Amino acid sequence: MKVQRLPWLALAATAVVAAVPAAAGQAVIGRTIDTSVEGPVVRPAARQGAPNILVWVIDDTGFGQLSSYGGLVDTPNIDRVAAMGLRYSNYHSTPICSASRASLLTGRNSHEVHVGGHSAMAIGFPGQDALVPRSAGTIAENLRQAGYETFAVGKWDHLPPRDASAAGPFTYWPSGQGFDRFYGFLSYDADNFAPLLWSDHSPAPLPADPAYHLSSDMADRAIAMIGARQAAGGARAPFFLYWATGAGHSPHHAPDEWLARYRGKFDEGWDVARERILARQKALGLVPANAELPPRPEGMKPWAELSADERRLYARAMEAFAAQLAHADHEFGRILDVLEAQGELDNTIIVVTSDNGASGEGAVSGTYSEQLMANGRFATVDENLAHIDEWGRRGTYPLYPVGWAVAGDTPFRYYKQTAFEGGIHVPLIVAWRRGIAAHGEVRRQYAHISDVMPTLLEAAGVRPAAIVNGVRQQPISGTSLTYSFADADAPDAKKVQYYEMYGNRSIWADGWKAVMPHRLQTWDFKKQPPITDQGWQLFDQRRDFNELHDLAAQNPRKLAELQRLFDREARKYNVYPLTNTGAAQRLMAAKAERRLAETGGLFRYQGRVSRIPEALAPPIHTHSFTMTMAVDPGQRGNGTLMAMGGRFGGLGLYLREGVPILALRTMDGKLSRLAAPGRLTGKSEIGLRFDRIGPEEARATISVDGKDVATSPFQGALSVFLFSGNETFDIGSDPGTTVLDGIDAPFPFDGKIGETSFVVSSPQR
Q1: b or e along 40-64 (b: 16 or more beta carbons within 10 Å of the residue's beta carbon)?
Q2: Phi and psi at residue 689, in whole multiples of 5°?
Q3: Is the Cβ–Cβ distance between 494 and 479 less than 8 Å?
Q4: Chain center to CA of 472
Q5: Burial of 204 (0-12, 13-18, 19+ CB in 10 A)
């Protein structure tokens, strides 16, 4: 055949050479374009009618907290999803956020993908190094290869802390795990009023909005990503949206109008709340009609035995949690409304779940600042009462008392970080109007968070890829739940599931469960009992679903069988070696000391640096140090010279009208200042010496051009572990919240900064 050419091509050839005929849909390759025929450009495309997928992972929310699971927090939009889909009453997560998210996204067990505990405490063993292997490609990678657009919005905390800077590497960021777009935070929690956010790989400035709240921002970004698919015109590609709000996790922050909605709602206390929640769960068919409440755990007083001040304080703490969760549900509803308006809701698979049970990390009295707990300190009732009027607002970083976690996990025992049902038995809602005929029904099949990925892939008609990013894939450990969509009575497809986190461990097999309670006061890092096999408990969950009757003494043979099974699964999935949180902290501290030894404690920076996580920063939050900085203050001399941390614990050096000012926030949030006696008169070398003398004593000295100009002792609870997961180390700005009062973040320096050096040494003893 003769190839048709455009007129301007005619000048390029003196003869036409016939091309070899090609099979339909294939290109013809000749020596030149004149003898070639273009073929179709084939891109990966989703199958016709492929469903969208929306997964909302709520944080630290127990089985008994959503209203559709009998909870006392109004979540009408989650209820709306439950009414058009299925609620699973026998679904389980891991005991902590990082591990659960890694498991959900990869379809494998958490230790199997190297995130057995929290990534912030990663240590050098295959089950705990936080390096998700490339052979465990995520659901996002699989869906992207099948033609989906993939979005991650919100919390992303299962990456090594040392990777959480603009320098990368980005292998374990969302972009390296299959997501086209990311907007969110790289930590276990975030200040809902002043989070440090990232857009893809770049720091994202906060909108200049005094009414800003993180949950609203997460909804805005999700809606924008969904809507952007229309830009190219024509048919929209299906999307996978992983919406991982910080809501549920401390700090329990909510807008004032939402806090006001829950005033007085929990004055009756946690004992009455547990009874009310259990009655609702029975009415909803989520638990057996004869279910009983477990006993209160050690440290949880009966509500009637609390003082008037304790009751007032603890009720206020629960109000803040409820307001935060209800507000997040409202923002979730905005996403649903957009999908409905676009005609996409019916063909969207929606999953709502939690990453673990309710958190008991607030200890007995709750805390107005989570950073206290992170440093092994606990707020007293009187200290908390000083913050009661601002609880849930900008001036606090709060978490409720353990009693509300127990109530939130009704009808189960204990809470987050434990391997009892209260730590791992959480809600799961799956809805898909076009694909699931049953609406508003309950499913009782045993399920695990690793089952989410294979369930969604099968429902979407996507076969798991054999090779992802050039790497052959390891088997998917999770079990698809699609078999249960149309059959409420289908037998459990899963037969065995282990659980482990920092020594707390359990194993479930065919209705039997063995539990080894190791560390139940999860808020106290100082309590590190030796790891032992003495004290295993045994439960027949076919008859005792919430672990009330220990059968270990009556049936030692079954217990031994389950112990052997745990050992088999542990060896198979990288669970060993078992470790305490304290052991992990010691290993991390030893690595930090080796780093100091290798560098001589010297850290140098040129000019401004931004968003350096504490894991990469000079350890000025835990050690003594000397700093020198070359500064040209310019005409005014205003801004941040150096800061690590913020309002709830931190250290910063600033210039105010040319005057150097050191600000220290101890872990109770109290501010101490040291100011030089005069302004800088031109280019100068500013020095700072900070000597840690004890856990509550330090001395600081400011120098200018080698001459000491101001010195002062400091008293207060010093950081021993970290200032804040929400804050970073910065030179030239102070994003997030500022250490110093009276300035607006990020308070950038308006002069010039040359070289900055730190020499870090061990604290004085």
Answers
A1: eeeeeebeeebbbbbbbbbbbbbbb
A2: -115, 125
A3: yes
A4: 28
A5: middle
Q: What is the mean pLDDT of each run of 10 residues along the chain (765 residues)?
A: 34 38 74 92 87 98 98 98 98 98 98 96 94 98 96 97 94 97 97 97 93 98 95 82 97 98 98 98 98 95 98 98 98 98 97 98 96 91 97 96 98 98 98 97 98 98 94 97 98 97 96 96 87 96 98 98 98 95 77 81 96 93 96 95 96 97 95 97 96 94 98 94 89 96 96 97 61
Its pTM stands at 0.94
- What's the CA gap between 387 and 403, in Å, rounded? 20
- Supply 183's token pair: 């907007």
- Count Cβ atoms within 10 A of the Cβ of residue 305 and give its class: 0-12 exposed, 13-18 middle, 19 or more buried: exposed
Amino acid, single-letter form, for residue 86: L
> Tokens standing for 327?
């507000």
Instruction: Single out the residue of 70, 61, 51 nearest to residue 329, CA to CA.
Output: 61
Closest CA to 495 of 451, 453, 528: 451
What is the token pair recorded at 48?
């016709």
The residue length of the chain stands at 765
Return d(Cα 762, Cα 340) in angstroms, integer: 59
> What span, in angstroms and rounded, lies between the C-alpha atoms of 442 and 91?
11
Q: Is 301 helix (H, G, I), strand (E, B) or coil?
A: coil
Task: State how beta strands 441-443 and 85-88 pair.
Answer: parallel
DSSP string, 405-449: HHHHTTTSSS-TTSSSHHHHB--EEEE-TTT----SEEE-S-EEG
Asked whether the CA dihedral 148, 151, 157, 162 is positive or negative, the reply is positive
389 burial level (CB within 10 Å; 0-12, 13-18, 19+)? exposed
Give one DSSP letter per residue of 16-65, joined into a string: --PPPP--TT--B--SSGGG-B--------PPTTPPEEEEEEESS--TTT
